[in-house]
Recover the amino acids of this structure.
């Protein structure tokens, strides 16, 4: 697994790099926004650790540039700004996670491990399906105008593929597989993020909002149960 570390402070980059190397991960380092985009294009890392405050362009713009190269890029924001608005903006733009400076090294590694685990599960299922053409075709999940293929990591709305990040896709799968059951925010945090998100259930709301926007008309299948959580009510069995 390869991680791109983006921060303009060499001491922080070195600290993160050493901690990740101890876990056996390869690392690539960038110290500016432009360097980060160039490194992403050249190295194709699995995960990006991205500082928001950079000397030439902010992390939000870097994220947008990276998404132009790869809509499913896995990004964890690193921010010195503990304001909720900064965190929410990062999640709304498509980041998978964020961590606030000063951060605990173990927590940072845990978040990277958790995201990597989900990426590997998705990639592994797709590769297994490709390697076994004689195996029975996995059954796609179809509800109204939405078709979801968990093995191929593909979501279609009216036959058109929708580009989703790993976390968006995992959340949609979980909602569909638990169709018509009300899912609380804490349950979604535990099963989609894989660890306590420090009680920040707002992350769930933001991801749901992103999903609805990307799914268009099919976004109406995700219903809000006020004061409790969410429920998927797409038509079909």
């Amino acid at each position: 697994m390869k991680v791109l570390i983006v921060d303009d402070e060499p001491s922080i980059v070195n600290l993160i790099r050493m901690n990740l190397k101890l876990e056996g991960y390869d690392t690539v380092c960038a110290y500016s926004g432009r360097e980060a985009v160039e490194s992403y294009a050249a190295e194709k890392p699995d995960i990006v650790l991205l500082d928001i405050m950079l000397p030439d362009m902010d992390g939000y713009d870097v994220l947008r540039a990276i998404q132009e190269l790869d809509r499913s890029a896995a990004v964890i924001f690193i921010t010195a700004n503990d304001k909720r608005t900064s965190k929410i903006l990062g999640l709304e733009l498509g980041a998978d996670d964020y961590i606030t400076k000063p951060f605990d090294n173990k927590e940072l590694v845990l978040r990277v491990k958790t995201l990597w685990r989900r990426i590997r599960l998705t990639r592994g299922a797709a590769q297994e399906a490709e390697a076994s053409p004689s195996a029975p075709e996995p059954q796609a999940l179809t509800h109204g105008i939405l078709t979801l293929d968990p093995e191929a990591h593909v979501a279609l709305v009216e036959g058109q593929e929708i580009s989703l990040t790993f976390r968006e896709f995992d959340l949609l799968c979980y909602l569909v597989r638990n169709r018509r059951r009300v899912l609380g925010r804490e349950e979604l945090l535990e099963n989609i993020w894989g660890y306590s998100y420090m009680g920040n259930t707002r992350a769930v709301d933001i991801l749901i909002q992103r999903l609805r926007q990307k799914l268009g008309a099919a976004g109406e299948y995700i219903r809000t149960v006020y004061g409790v959580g969410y429920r998927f009510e797409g038509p079909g069995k």
Notes: Residues 133-137 have pLDDT under 50 and may be disordered.
